[in-house]
């Protein structure tokens, strides 16, 4: 169907006086004595195009006035003092009708209401803006790594090991419900893979395999977590960016993470001004200044031990008391990043007992060379560490956690054959999108969010 994108026409005087064909969905309609008006949107622009219908020229336009219907409009583009340009219709074809039960009749609906209809909410301005920024951000992330010589690898989605050792894996099975097996081993031995399998919580372990050959790699794919966390920051299926870098120690990977975050935010500021202005107006006043400030200031680097001291001397009561050795709760993370520093903070050198087996053990014997990047409003967006490159230390950490060595043979081999210092991190794609857009619920960042008790 030959037509021109609305984004091409809006704000482009080239088309004034020209006759064009546009397509879109009707967002608003208004009837007056001699003329009727439609605002249509084809998804290519946040701005709608106004269609002016001269009733003397076009009489059969009633079904085009129904919100949500799809139309093809031909006509002349004219200047309009309020909207920039509009189209004086000479022909309107309704491509798909929309009866009166189309749910998006109001100008603004609550996000909660919109969550009940993921297939239609994408037609609102909010979701148009979210998904355009999502697309631009994905491209900026690929550009960042590609232009610096990283190899993009696709790590397996079905896996036989639980990367984090956290036991929050979705099982993958083809066994029928009524299997009749007595033990777990017997059950899985007869399963598709002949052993227990699940959906990957992280591509890191396979990413390390690739980094030990290609030097610098990154993954960008889905991760799955069956954790029972019904919060505005958790999805059961989220997109995960995981670079892994050989010959890099913790300070090196922190430098890379900070540079990457700043670079991709810069790209969004450059490429999505309308969308950011929209979020600024409707969701987070001061958003653009916040993003500019992130780019122009150094992130804070804070030792975990110092973070605990700050929290203990805070003149406020936390719901979860914290002592050295405890995991930081959301309220602690928010206090540190929002109230103490008001900028992104890398908390480094966590106690080894609250972190994963693969993290490099520090000489103090108590902590690991790991960091989480905390940001105001969202909390943790990056989990990062230097990896334990010493075979014996890694084996000891696995023993302490009672891990099954058979599942990690490849991983251990990396420490046997040409082991090198290496580091990596995992960035939650939806989490950084929340930070950049100011949207406060992760359910409004994914097309079809999967959360505890909800799949569609
Ligand atoms: O801190 P995490 O668990 O780290 C890892 O998975 C490491 N293997 C990463 C690595 O070193 N390659 O997860 C990394 C990030 C978190 O900081 C968060 O942004 C995101 O993944 N994330 C989630 N995002 C949405 N919903 C969830 N349930 C998430 N769990 C983690």
Distance between the termini: 32 Å
Low-confidence stretches: none
Class inferred from helices and paired strands = alpha+beta
Bound small-molecule species: 4-amino-1,4-dioxobutan-2-aminium adenosine-5'-monophosphate
Radius of gyration equals 27 Å
What can you see in these coordinates?
It is built from 14 helices and 15 strands. With 456 residues, the chain is of the alpha+beta class. Helices cover 31% and strands 24% of the residues. The protein has two domains: 6-102, Nucleic acid-binding proteins (OB fold (Dihydrolipoamide Acetyltransferase, E2P)); 125-444, BirA Bifunctional Protein, domain 2 (2-Layer Sandwich). The radius of gyration is 27 Å and the shape is elongated. The protein has helices at residues 6-9, 111-115, 118-121, 125-146, 184-189, 204-214, 250-271, 273-282, 287-296, 304-312, 330-341, 391-400, 409-416, 429-437; strands spanning 19-31, 35-41, 49-54, 70-80, 84-96, 151-152, 158-159, 198-199, 216-224, 237-246, 300-303, 345-351, 367-375, 379-386, 422-428. The two termini are 32 Å apart. The strands form three sheets. It has an eight-stranded mixed β-sheet with strand order 6-9-10-15-14-13-12-11. It has a five-stranded mixed β-barrel with strand order 1-2-3-5-4. It has a two-stranded antiparallel sheet with strand order 7-8. The model has no long low-confidence stretch (mean pLDDT 95). α4 crosses α8 (273-282) and α4 packs across α14 (429-437). The longest helix has 22 residues, at 125-146. Bound molecules: 4-amino-1,4-dioxobutan-2-aminium adenosine-5'-monophosphate. 4-amino-1,4-dioxobutan-2-aminium adenosine-5'-monophosphate (4AD) is lined by residues 163-164, 202, 204, 225, 234-235, 238, 240, 242, 380-385, 424-426, 428, 430-431.
